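Risk register update: the risk of archive-format incompatibility is retired. Evidence:
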Amino acid sequence: MKSVALALVFTLCLIASTRADLTLVQKVEGAGQGANEMTIKIKGDKARIDASPKLTTIIDGKTGDIANLMNDRKTVMRISAEKMRAAAEMIGKFNANATNASKGKLTPTGKKDKVAGYDAEEYVYETPNFKATYWIAPNYPDGAMIVKELQALSSDLWQSNNFRLPDYRDFPGLPVKTVVAAGDSNVTTTLVSVSKAPLDDAQFAVPKDFKEIKVPEMHFAPPGEKAPQEKPGAPASPKP
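Archived output:
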């Protein structure tokens, strides 16, 4: 699941709002896990990411709210845009490198190769916290249209909160393969297929029989300081 989680973070940075119905199927490998297939569906202002049969994420591009569906348990955890921003800001405070590092630059290496059957050119994007290698296929069928749709996506939530990720508008074509190295994790994502077939609105709604669970409160403190204590009488925070 670690590879799925890392790939999901980078995918979330690209998704918020678009106009056409799109379905992207990707193969995700790495971080000590076997190959996993991830499906991304986009319709209007909604996006759905099936990271695995057990986990689905639904994003409302208008509000920025996220619903995480645990399919095997039939439960849903909703996270508001405000909480996402607060969590990202808190992460930035604890990561001095991310806070102080300048944003990287998408740079061509001049290397070319066949990737997933398409001619592709290598680009790299590197910061002190991670390195990403993108293989971009300038002649992918309908690639210009797909990239245009993706370029319309708003990544302000992530870009403003120390993640230092590349903006999709910087991409000169459609990435068909991405290799992300962050710490000890290496995750490879390969585009398998793209479809423009119409999508049912029901796929972007939380099933009525799913039970809602609350997001646990998390308390952090800068190095050398104690984390805030629970108030007397308040229920103890759940243990991980």
